[in-house]
Structure formats: structure tokens, C-alpha cells
């Protein structure tokens, strides 16, 4: 219960301070965040993270196909599933 009250108090303080700062301060923060997001070093890390995520999704897809095949072969016979039968990993904008 104390944790919930602390969160509510934090939200309240943030709201009051935010409203006092006004639109100008909001715009400064937003522009700063945009500069960081568009920084070439940050963009490179975003692309690296996307590549790792895609590679891991492909590896997970292969593992799932193998596990499905194990279960199918144990249950009723010669059915098989390949990783190509499974959907591709979704792509998200970076």
C-alpha cells in the first residue's frame, strides 16, 4: 500500500511541476529527446539491437520447429514441420 501511495504522490508532484514548467519547457524536453534519438551513435545502437532481435527470432523459430517435430513424431507418425513452415518474425520500424 505504501508503494502505491508513493507512486501516486510522485505522479502528483510530476503533474504540478510539469504544469508549472509550461509548454515551452515541454518543447525543450521533446526537442532534446529528438536530438538524442537521431544521434548517429544512438541510431547505430538501435540498428544493432534490431539486428540482434531478428537473429534471435530466427533462432527461436528454428527451436520451435524442432520442438514441434519432436512432439509430432512422438505422437502419431511421419508428419514434420520445418522452420520455413512457420511465419517470419515481425519487422518493426527502427
UniProtKB/TrEMBL annotation:
Domain of life: Bacteria
Stretches the record annotates as Disordered: 69-94
Name of the molecule in the record: YtxH domain-containing protein
Organism, as annotated: Nocardioides terrae
